[in-house]
Backbone:
């Protein structure tokens, strides 16, 4: 998958958002200073999230089977990824890999649809088509009316399988099931995108 495509998916499907401190204050005639400030804020955010990962990793070393720590560490890796991708650091894919590993460990010990969704989304962002497809399918078998699951599965079908018709059906179903205005906006944008395509002339991959 092209790097720009990964960035598009990340922007649309992020589980967590970078804190409001990420936004730099731009003043007329001071763009260079604002860019430097923005970079500094990103680096501080990265260092903070790396510290959380390190602390949780040490905690898990003392209690490797602690499910809550596994989940917290998975979330910490995902949060760190959302910043490291902005800095073009080589480790951003490793962050996703580690998040996936932690979520899989959690699911060995307890059933949790929220964790399944996080695993599926992480696999999508890591471009692991097999794991993403399998996990979205498992989630939607357990919870077929999960709007976020339908949205994510649509993203998987659209970007990794190029099955635009099935992606559209997932998003239309999700739109009818959610009252979340932000999700509705994202769904509306993707639905409009597919409806603006000549999907009948595109070869879909099953």
Residues:
């Amino acid at each position: 998958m092209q790097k720009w495509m990964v960035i598009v998916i990340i922007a649309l499907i992020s589980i967590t958002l970078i804190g409001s401190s990420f936004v730099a204050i731009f003043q007329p005639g001071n763009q260079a200073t604002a860019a430097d400030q923005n970079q500094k804020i990103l680096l501080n955010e990265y260092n903070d999230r790396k510290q959380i990962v390190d602390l949780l990793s040490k905690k898990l070393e003392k209690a490797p089977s602690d499910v809550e720590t596994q989940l917290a560490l998975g979330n910490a890796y995902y949060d760190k990824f959302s910043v490291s991708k902005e800095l073009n650091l080589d480790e951003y894919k490793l962050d996703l890999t580690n998040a996936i590993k932690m979520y899989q460990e959690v699911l060995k010990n307890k059933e949790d649809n929220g964790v399944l969704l996080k695993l599926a989304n992480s696999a999508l962002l890591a471009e692991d088509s097999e794991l993403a497809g399998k996990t979205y399918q498992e989630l939607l078998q357990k919870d077929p009316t999960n709007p976020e699951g339908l949205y994510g599965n649509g993203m998987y079908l659209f970007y990794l399988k190029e099955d635009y018709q099935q992606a559209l059906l997932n998003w239309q179903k999700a739109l009818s099931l959610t009252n979340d205005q932000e999700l509705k906006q994202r769904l509306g944008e993707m639905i409009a995108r597919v409806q603006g395509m000549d999907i009948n002339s595109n070869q879909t991959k099953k």
Summary: The mean pLDDT is 86.
